[in-house]
Amino acid sequence: MGSSAVAMGDVSSVDIMSELLRRFKCSSKPDKRLILIGPPGSGKGTQSPIIKEEYCLCHLATGDMLRAAVAAKTPLGIKAKEAMDMGELVSDDLVVGIIDEAMKKLSCQKGFILDGFPRTVVQAQKLDEMLEKQGAKIDKVLDFAIDDSILEERITSRWIHPSSGRSYHIKFAPPKVAVVDDVTGEPLIQRKDDTAEVLKSRLEAFHRQTEPVISYYAKKGVLAQLHAEKPPKEVTTEVLKVIS
């Protein structure tokens, strides 16, 4: 009995120490408010946890936040659910309100990474107004710039083994035998979203909506264009250089 109690005590003190060390490390970091913009497959999902960790930021993915607000039945969440139930889009003001609420969390003290928002210039303006009221502003907008043809090669060459989730890439990590899983020999499939047609329409929507947002931030002098076609490690180096 005694020994397990001691072990428990040790665990919590280790946790406390690592949390104190994290806070100490974080206290010396500058506040950062960042926006990541990029088409599907451009590598935002790979880089954002690294940035989050390095600068002690919180990650605000608007889709997740909306779902969380709806689940928690916050006043804004209730309004958002009403809109969704009627098949309407959640209004920009509501989304900005939900971001505003989320920013007050302890984990967002040093700033945030916004992903999936703003998608339009109007949203960008509303976000700026809200931040201005708090005496804050966007520090950097990271534009994961990448050629559509490279994205097509990245995404349409992905094949998945459905039961294990193992993934292959025809060019970079091909299976030993074409279109079958290395381990089981079962056939590989493509995700519905990973076909050229779906990608093409997603990219068209992205360019149509988001190009104006990119130029909006460029005019404000906070835009950094990344070479998102490079290997992830090189992109990370570039990202950290741009933010610092």
Automatic annotation (TrEMBL):
Molecular function per GO: AMP kinase activity; ATP binding
Broad class of enzyme this protein falls into: transferase
Role this protein plays: Catalyzes the reversible transfer of the terminal phosphate group between ATP and AMP. Plays an important role in cellular energy homeostasis and in adenine nucleotide metabolism.
Domain of life: Eukaryota
Protein family (similarity comment): Belongs to the adenylate kinase family.
Family matches, as CDD domains: ADK (cd01428)
Pfam family, one: ADK_lid
Catalytic activity: AMP + ATP = 2 ADP
This protein's UniProt keywords: Kinase, Nucleotide-binding, Transferase
Domain named Adenylate kinase active site lid: residues: 158-193
EC number: 2.7.4.3
Name of the protein in its database record: adenylate kinase
Complex and partners: Monomer.
Record flagged with keyword 4Fe-4S: no
